[in-house]
Write a structure and sequence with these properties.
This protein is about 5% helix and about 45% strand.
Length: about 120
Amino acid sequence: MFQQEPTDVKIRLTFGDHVMTATLYDNPSARDFASMLPLDLKIEDFGPNEKIAHLPRKLTVEGSNPFSNERPYDLCYYMPWGNLAMFYADYKHPGLVRLGRFDAGYEALHVPGEFPLRIERIQ
């Protein structure tokens, strides 16, 4: 079973003058993502409920399985495209792996536009 439990791994996502923090979950995809940090990407709007950022390579999806308790402010990985999906409103979509949850600053996801994005591990 793919874990949906938080770990002690915290990350910071910075774009413009906005800073968000998130806690990663205990699963192979999240561990693979953490191993890539720090990253300099671009964050952009996608649809009415999310921002996305394209990763330099696809993450492992070993052991991943669908989940049904989707909530705003989930940090996910979209397997078909290999991008991060950061949701700020309700969502339901196949092909996602939940990497973690935003802890603070997630209001910034509501700011429209495209920005350089820095993601780094803080703990």
